[in-house]
UniProtKB/TrEMBL annotation:
The lineage of its organism: Bacteria, Pseudomonadati, Pseudomonadota, Betaproteobacteria, Burkholderiales. This is BolA family transcriptional regulator. Signal peptide: none annotated. InterPro entries: BolA, BolA-like_sf, BolA/IbaG_stress_morph_reg. Belongs to the BolA/IbaG family. Gene3D superfamilies: BolA-like (3.30.300.90). It comes from Variovorax terrae. Pfam families: BolA.
Length: 80
């Protein structure tokens, strides 16, 4: 899977204001900014992203995904 493919899958299932991906085709790291993270704990945010990937996480199509998740307000305070 390419970064563009993975980005498209996540963006199709979760409205993102910002989405960065880096990885080698199986192991990925992501920075995801979405208003849907408002009021959600970290584990709930990650579960929401995993839900967009569905079976791809179980079939090893995406072996590992580390995430930094932010609300738009949190992202605005980050240095970038």
């Amino acid at each position: 899977m390419t970064a563009d493919e993975l980005k498209s899958i996540i963006a199709a299932g979760l409205p993102c204001e910002h989405l960065e991906l880096d990885g080698d085709g199986r192991h990925w790291s992501a920075v995801i900014v979405s208003a849907e993270f408002e009021g959600r704990r970290l584990i709930q945010r990650h579960q929401r992203v995993y839900a967009t990937l569905g079976a791809r996480m179980h079939t090893d199509e995406v072996h590992a995904l580390s995430m930094k998740t932010f609300t738009p307000a949190e992202w605005a305070t980050q240095p970038h």
